[in-house]
Amino acid sequence: MIHARGLAATFVTGKGKNQREVRAVAGVDLDIAEGEVVGFLGPNGAGKTTTLRMLTTLLRPTAGTATVNGFDVVTESVQVRRSIGYVSQMGSTFSQALAGDEVADHGQLYGMSRRDAVARGKELFSQLQLDGLWDRMPKNMSGGQRRRLDIAMGLIHDPTLVFLDEPTTGLDPQARANLWEHIAKLRTERGATVFLTTHYLDEADALSDRIIIIDNGVIVAADTPENLKSQVSGDLVHLEFTAAGPVAHAAQRLEQVGATEIEAAGFGVRARLRGSAKVIPGLLRDLESAGDTLDSIEIMRPTLDDVFLTLTGRSLRDAEAGADTEEVSDEIPA
Ligand SMILES: Nc1ncnc2c1ncn2[C@@H]1O[C@H](COP(=O)(O)OP(=O)(O)OP(=O)(O)O)[C@@H](O)[C@H]1O
User: What residue stretches are annotated with the ABC transporter domain (predicted)?
Assistant: First the structure.
Protein backbone atom coordinates (compact mmCIF):
# COMPACT_ATOMS: atom_id res chain seq x y z
CA MET A 1 0.00 0.00 0.00
CA ILE A 2 2.72 2.47 1.02
CA HIS A 3 6.39 1.98 0.27
CA ALA A 4 8.95 4.72 0.79
CA ARG A 5 12.72 4.67 0.50
CA GLY A 6 14.99 7.45 1.72
CA LEU A 7 12.14 9.95 1.68
CA ALA A 8 13.46 13.37 2.67
CA ALA A 9 12.27 16.97 2.83
CA THR A 10 14.49 19.96 3.43
CA PHE A 11 13.05 23.47 3.69
CA VAL A 12 15.00 26.67 3.24
CA THR A 13 13.81 29.36 5.62
CA GLY A 14 14.77 32.99 6.14
CA LYS A 15 16.51 35.37 3.77
CA GLY A 16 20.12 36.48 3.20
CA LYS A 17 22.31 35.97 6.25
CA ASN A 18 19.39 34.43 8.15
CA GLN A 19 18.85 31.77 5.54
CA ARG A 20 19.04 28.25 6.91
CA GLU A 21 18.06 24.75 5.99
CA VAL A 22 15.56 22.76 8.04
CA ARG A 23 15.82 19.02 7.52
CA ALA A 24 12.21 18.19 8.34
CA VAL A 25 12.41 14.57 7.17
CA ALA A 26 15.84 13.02 6.81
CA GLY A 27 15.51 9.78 4.85
CA VAL A 28 12.50 7.72 5.84
CA ASP A 29 11.78 4.12 4.81
CA LEU A 30 8.21 2.89 5.20
CA ASP A 31 6.32 -0.28 4.30
CA ILE A 32 2.64 -0.31 5.16
CA ALA A 33 0.51 -3.28 4.19
CA GLU A 34 -3.13 -3.41 3.17
CA GLY A 35 -5.55 -3.36 6.12
CA GLU A 36 -3.03 -2.07 8.65
CA VAL A 37 -3.81 0.77 11.04
CA VAL A 38 -0.50 2.52 11.55
CA GLY A 39 0.06 5.24 14.13
CA PHE A 40 2.79 7.72 13.21
CA LEU A 41 3.95 9.14 16.49
CA GLY A 42 6.45 11.82 17.42
CA PRO A 43 6.84 15.13 19.24
CA ASN A 44 5.92 18.49 17.69
CA GLY A 45 8.15 19.25 14.74
CA ALA A 46 9.37 15.64 14.39
CA GLY A 47 8.37 15.48 10.72
CA LYS A 48 5.00 13.70 10.83
CA THR A 49 2.95 16.18 8.79
CA THR A 50 5.78 16.71 6.32
CA THR A 51 5.99 12.95 5.70
CA LEU A 52 2.23 12.77 5.31
CA ARG A 53 2.22 15.68 2.86
CA MET A 54 4.84 13.95 0.73
CA LEU A 55 2.86 10.71 0.72
CA THR A 56 -0.34 12.56 -0.21
CA THR A 57 1.52 14.47 -3.00
CA LEU A 58 1.04 17.89 -1.39
CA LEU A 59 4.79 18.31 -1.03
CA ARG A 60 7.45 17.14 -3.44
CA PRO A 61 10.20 15.14 -1.70
CA THR A 62 13.68 16.68 -1.75
CA ALA A 63 15.07 13.15 -2.07
CA GLY A 64 13.93 9.55 -2.03
CA THR A 65 11.00 7.71 -3.59
CA ALA A 66 7.56 6.61 -2.50
CA THR A 67 4.64 4.71 -3.97
CA VAL A 68 1.12 4.88 -2.58
CA ASN A 69 -1.43 2.34 -3.80
CA GLY A 70 1.16 1.38 -6.42
CA PHE A 71 1.45 4.94 -7.81
CA ASP A 72 4.56 7.08 -7.65
CA VAL A 73 3.97 10.20 -5.52
CA VAL A 74 5.87 12.45 -7.93
CA THR A 75 5.17 11.11 -11.43
CA GLU A 76 1.66 9.75 -10.75
CA SER A 77 0.38 12.28 -8.23
CA VAL A 78 -3.09 12.51 -9.79
CA GLN A 79 -3.63 8.75 -9.46
CA VAL A 80 -2.35 8.86 -5.86
CA ARG A 81 -4.77 11.68 -4.96
CA ARG A 82 -7.72 9.89 -6.53
CA SER A 83 -7.00 6.68 -4.68
CA ILE A 84 -6.59 8.04 -1.16
CA GLY A 85 -8.60 9.87 1.47
CA TYR A 86 -6.85 12.68 3.31
CA VAL A 87 -8.06 14.48 6.40
CA SER A 88 -5.68 17.33 7.16
CA GLN A 89 -4.81 18.70 10.57
CA MET A 90 -6.73 21.90 9.96
CA GLY A 91 -9.85 20.23 8.62
CA SER A 92 -11.34 21.27 5.35
CA THR A 93 -14.67 22.85 6.16
CA PHE A 94 -14.37 26.62 6.30
CA SER A 95 -17.04 27.73 3.88
CA GLN A 96 -20.55 29.04 4.50
CA ALA A 97 -22.05 26.03 2.73
CA LEU A 98 -24.20 23.45 4.44
CA ALA A 99 -22.35 20.40 5.70
CA GLY A 100 -24.13 17.94 3.41
CA ASP A 101 -23.57 20.10 0.34
CA GLU A 102 -19.88 20.35 1.13
CA VAL A 103 -19.54 16.61 1.40
CA ALA A 104 -21.49 15.99 -1.80
CA ASP A 105 -19.48 18.70 -3.66
CA HIS A 106 -16.34 16.98 -2.50
CA GLY A 107 -17.58 13.69 -3.95
CA GLN A 108 -18.26 15.40 -7.26
CA LEU A 109 -14.69 16.71 -7.26
CA TYR A 110 -13.66 13.08 -7.31
CA GLY A 111 -15.84 12.45 -10.35
CA MET A 112 -18.93 11.07 -8.59
CA SER A 113 -22.40 11.96 -9.87
CA ARG A 114 -24.40 14.29 -7.60
CA ARG A 115 -26.86 11.51 -6.92
CA ASP A 116 -24.15 9.01 -5.88
CA ALA A 117 -22.32 11.65 -3.84
CA VAL A 118 -25.49 12.57 -1.92
CA ALA A 119 -26.40 8.92 -1.32
CA ARG A 120 -22.91 8.07 -0.15
CA GLY A 121 -22.72 11.25 1.94
CA LYS A 122 -25.98 10.39 3.72
CA GLU A 123 -24.71 6.89 4.43
CA LEU A 124 -21.51 8.34 5.91
CA PHE A 125 -23.44 10.89 8.00
CA SER A 126 -25.37 8.05 9.52
CA GLN A 127 -22.27 5.88 10.14
CA LEU A 128 -20.41 8.81 11.70
CA GLN A 129 -23.35 9.78 13.92
CA LEU A 130 -24.00 13.03 12.08
CA ASP A 131 -27.69 12.28 11.53
CA GLY A 132 -29.78 15.43 11.28
CA LEU A 133 -26.75 17.65 10.54
CA TRP A 134 -26.85 17.54 6.73
CA ASP A 135 -28.36 21.05 6.58
CA ARG A 136 -26.25 22.56 9.36
CA MET A 137 -23.30 24.87 8.67
CA PRO A 138 -20.03 23.38 9.93
CA LYS A 139 -19.32 26.50 12.01
CA ASN A 140 -22.42 25.69 14.05
CA MET A 141 -21.27 22.17 14.87
CA SER A 142 -19.29 20.98 17.90
CA GLY A 143 -15.57 20.25 17.53
CA GLY A 144 -16.20 16.51 17.51
CA GLN A 145 -18.96 16.80 14.91
CA ARG A 146 -16.75 18.97 12.69
CA ARG A 147 -13.92 16.45 12.92
CA ARG A 148 -16.31 13.64 11.95
CA LEU A 149 -17.50 15.80 9.07
CA ASP A 150 -13.86 16.15 7.94
CA ILE A 151 -13.65 12.38 8.01
CA ALA A 152 -16.85 12.06 5.93
CA MET A 153 -15.23 14.37 3.34
CA GLY A 154 -12.11 12.22 3.33
CA LEU A 155 -14.16 9.05 2.81
CA ILE A 156 -16.77 10.23 0.31
CA HIS A 157 -15.10 8.58 -2.70
CA ASP A 158 -14.59 5.27 -0.82
CA PRO A 159 -10.80 5.25 -0.63
CA THR A 160 -9.15 2.08 0.62
CA LEU A 161 -6.27 4.06 2.09
CA VAL A 162 -6.97 6.93 4.48
CA PHE A 163 -4.49 9.45 5.87
CA LEU A 164 -5.58 11.22 9.05
CA ASP A 165 -3.38 14.04 10.36
CA GLU A 166 -3.91 14.41 14.11
CA PRO A 167 -7.58 13.48 13.91
CA THR A 168 -8.43 14.18 17.55
CA THR A 169 -6.34 17.24 18.41
CA GLY A 170 -8.40 19.78 20.31
CA LEU A 171 -11.26 17.40 21.11
CA ASP A 172 -12.51 16.68 24.61
CA PRO A 173 -11.92 13.12 25.94
CA GLN A 174 -15.43 11.95 25.12
CA ALA A 175 -15.31 13.22 21.54
CA ARG A 176 -11.86 11.65 21.16
CA ALA A 177 -13.08 8.27 22.37
CA ASN A 178 -16.04 8.51 20.00
CA LEU A 179 -13.75 9.30 17.06
CA TRP A 180 -11.49 6.39 18.00
CA GLU A 181 -14.46 4.08 17.57
CA HIS A 182 -15.11 5.44 14.11
CA ILE A 183 -11.46 5.13 13.12
CA ALA A 184 -11.37 1.52 14.34
CA LYS A 185 -14.50 0.82 12.27
CA LEU A 186 -12.83 2.12 9.11
CA ARG A 187 -10.84 -1.06 9.12
CA THR A 188 -13.29 -3.52 10.61
CA GLU A 189 -16.28 -2.41 8.51
CA ARG A 190 -14.66 -1.04 5.38
CA GLY A 191 -11.36 -2.93 5.26
CA ALA A 192 -9.52 0.39 4.94
CA THR A 193 -5.83 0.91 5.58
CA VAL A 194 -5.34 3.84 7.94
CA PHE A 195 -2.21 5.93 8.42
CA LEU A 196 -2.69 8.43 11.22
CA THR A 197 -0.37 10.91 12.87
CA THR A 198 -0.77 11.78 16.50
CA HIS A 199 1.15 12.96 19.47
CA TYR A 200 -1.26 11.34 21.88
CA LEU A 201 0.46 8.21 23.15
CA ASP A 202 -2.74 6.61 24.41
CA GLU A 203 -4.37 7.19 21.05
CA ALA A 204 -1.52 5.58 19.12
CA ASP A 205 -1.55 2.67 21.58
CA ALA A 206 -5.31 2.11 21.44
CA LEU A 207 -5.78 2.38 17.70
CA SER A 208 -2.70 1.08 15.96
CA ASP A 209 -1.66 -2.37 14.84
CA ARG A 210 1.76 -0.91 14.37
CA ILE A 211 3.46 2.22 15.60
CA ILE A 212 6.14 4.13 13.81
CA ILE A 213 7.99 6.66 15.94
CA ILE A 214 9.72 9.59 14.28
CA ASP A 215 12.09 11.98 16.01
CA ASN A 216 14.03 14.80 14.34
CA GLY A 217 13.01 13.55 10.90
CA VAL A 218 14.31 10.03 11.48
CA ILE A 219 12.35 6.87 12.26
CA VAL A 220 13.54 5.55 15.61
CA ALA A 221 11.18 2.57 16.00
CA ALA A 222 8.52 0.63 14.11
CA ASP A 223 6.70 -2.28 15.72
CA THR A 224 3.47 -3.34 17.41
CA PRO A 225 2.64 -1.37 20.58
CA GLU A 226 3.15 -4.55 22.64
CA ASN A 227 6.59 -5.32 21.17
CA LEU A 228 7.69 -1.73 21.63
CA LYS A 229 6.61 -1.72 25.26
CA SER A 230 8.28 -5.06 25.95
CA GLN A 231 11.62 -3.49 24.97
CA VAL A 232 11.38 -1.20 27.95
CA SER A 233 13.16 -2.68 30.95
CA GLY A 234 10.17 -3.67 33.03
CA ASP A 235 7.30 -2.22 35.01
CA LEU A 236 7.73 0.82 37.18
CA VAL A 237 7.28 -0.25 40.81
CA HIS A 238 6.79 2.31 43.56
CA LEU A 239 6.81 1.19 47.21
CA GLU A 240 5.89 3.69 49.90
CA PHE A 241 6.53 2.94 53.60
CA THR A 242 5.15 4.50 56.78
CA ALA A 243 8.68 5.61 57.76
CA ALA A 244 12.11 6.10 56.16
CA GLY A 245 13.66 3.13 57.99
CA PRO A 246 12.70 0.30 55.61
CA VAL A 247 13.63 2.18 52.42
CA ALA A 248 17.29 1.06 52.26
CA HIS A 249 16.35 -2.57 52.90
CA ALA A 250 13.65 -2.46 50.22
CA ALA A 251 16.11 -0.95 47.71
CA GLN A 252 18.57 -3.74 48.49
CA ARG A 253 15.90 -6.44 48.06
CA LEU A 254 14.81 -4.86 44.79
CA GLU A 255 18.38 -5.00 43.52
CA GLN A 256 18.61 -8.67 44.52
CA VAL A 257 15.54 -9.53 42.43
CA GLY A 258 17.02 -7.82 39.38
CA ALA A 259 15.41 -4.38 39.51
CA THR A 260 17.15 -1.49 37.75
CA GLU A 261 16.97 2.32 37.95
CA ILE A 262 16.43 2.05 41.73
CA GLU A 263 15.75 5.42 43.34
CA ALA A 264 15.09 5.89 47.05
CA ALA A 265 13.63 9.16 48.33
CA GLY A 266 11.85 10.02 51.59
CA PHE A 267 9.63 7.13 52.65
CA GLY A 268 9.58 5.55 49.20
CA VAL A 269 11.58 3.64 46.64
CA ARG A 270 10.92 3.23 42.93
CA ALA A 271 12.54 0.93 40.39
CA ARG A 272 12.09 -0.81 37.07
CA LEU A 273 11.34 -4.51 37.44
CA ARG A 274 10.83 -7.11 34.72
CA GLY A 275 8.10 -9.68 35.38
CA SER A 276 6.96 -7.75 38.43
CA ALA A 277 3.71 -9.76 38.76
CA LYS A 278 5.78 -12.87 39.60
CA VAL A 279 8.43 -11.18 41.74
CA ILE A 280 6.40 -8.76 43.84
CA PRO A 281 4.48 -11.26 46.07
CA GLY A 282 7.74 -12.82 47.38
CA LEU A 283 9.31 -9.41 47.81
CA LEU A 284 6.34 -8.22 49.88
CA ARG A 285 6.50 -11.31 52.08
CA ASP A 286 10.22 -10.66 52.73
CA LEU A 287 9.59 -7.05 53.61
CA GLU A 288 6.74 -7.98 55.92
CA SER A 289 8.74 -10.62 57.77
CA ALA A 290 11.53 -8.06 58.25
CA GLY A 291 8.95 -5.78 59.90
CA ASP A 292 8.95 -3.21 57.09
CA THR A 293 5.47 -1.68 57.10
CA LEU A 294 4.29 -0.87 53.62
CA ASP A 295 1.91 2.06 53.18
CA SER A 296 1.18 1.63 49.48
CA ILE A 297 2.40 -0.06 46.33
CA GLU A 298 1.93 1.06 42.74
CA ILE A 299 2.89 -0.94 39.67
CA MET A 300 2.78 0.82 36.32
CA ARG A 301 3.01 -1.04 33.02
CA PRO A 302 5.42 0.54 30.51
CA THR A 303 3.83 3.17 28.28
CA LEU A 304 4.80 4.37 24.83
CA ASP A 305 6.32 7.39 26.58
CA ASP A 306 8.72 4.98 28.33
CA VAL A 307 9.51 3.54 24.89
CA PHE A 308 10.28 7.01 23.55
CA LEU A 309 12.43 7.74 26.62
CA THR A 310 14.37 4.50 26.18
CA LEU A 311 14.95 5.20 22.50
CA THR A 312 15.81 8.89 22.60
CA GLY A 313 16.76 9.64 26.21
CA ARG A 314 13.92 12.20 26.35
CA SER A 315 10.33 11.98 27.44
CA LEU A 316 7.92 12.70 24.62
CA ARG A 317 6.34 15.42 26.76
CA ASP A 318 9.72 17.13 27.35
CA ALA A 319 10.50 16.81 23.66
CA GLU A 320 7.20 18.57 22.95
CA ALA A 321 7.94 21.34 25.42
CA GLY A 322 11.27 22.05 23.69
CA ALA A 323 9.88 21.75 20.17
CA ASP A 324 10.67 24.16 17.39
CA THR A 325 7.78 26.59 17.39
CA GLU A 326 8.98 28.72 14.51
CA GLU A 327 6.28 29.94 12.12
CA VAL A 328 6.61 28.25 8.76
CA SER A 329 5.53 29.02 5.24
CA ASP A 330 3.24 26.59 3.51
CA GLU A 331 4.85 25.55 0.27
CA ILE A 332 2.80 23.48 -2.11
CA PRO A 333 4.87 22.59 -5.15
CA ALA A 334 3.42 22.79 -8.63
N1 LIG B 1 6.95 24.83 4.88
C2 LIG B 1 7.93 24.77 5.78
N3 LIG B 1 8.95 25.65 5.75
C4 LIG B 1 9.97 25.57 6.66
N5 LIG B 1 10.05 24.63 7.64
C6 LIG B 1 9.06 23.76 7.73
C7 LIG B 1 7.94 23.75 6.82
N8 LIG B 1 7.09 22.74 7.16
C9 LIG B 1 7.65 22.15 8.23
N10 LIG B 1 8.82 22.74 8.59
C11 LIG B 1 9.70 22.35 9.70
O12 LIG B 1 9.95 20.98 9.57
C13 LIG B 1 9.96 20.33 10.84
C14 LIG B 1 8.93 19.21 10.83
O15 LIG B 1 7.60 19.77 10.78
P16 LIG B 1 6.28 18.88 10.74
O17 LIG B 1 5.14 19.83 10.61
O18 LIG B 1 6.44 17.82 9.74
O19 LIG B 1 6.31 18.24 12.19
P20 LIG B 1 5.16 17.40 12.93
O21 LIG B 1 5.83 16.20 13.48
O22 LIG B 1 4.02 17.19 12.04
O23 LIG B 1 4.77 18.39 14.10
P24 LIG B 1 3.31 18.67 14.78
O25 LIG B 1 3.07 17.53 15.70
O26 LIG B 1 3.56 19.94 15.53
O27 LIG B 1 2.30 18.81 13.70
C28 LIG B 1 9.69 21.42 11.86
O29 LIG B 1 10.94 21.87 12.36
C30 LIG B 1 9.01 22.51 11.06
O31 LIG B 1 9.26 23.77 11.62
Answer: 2-241
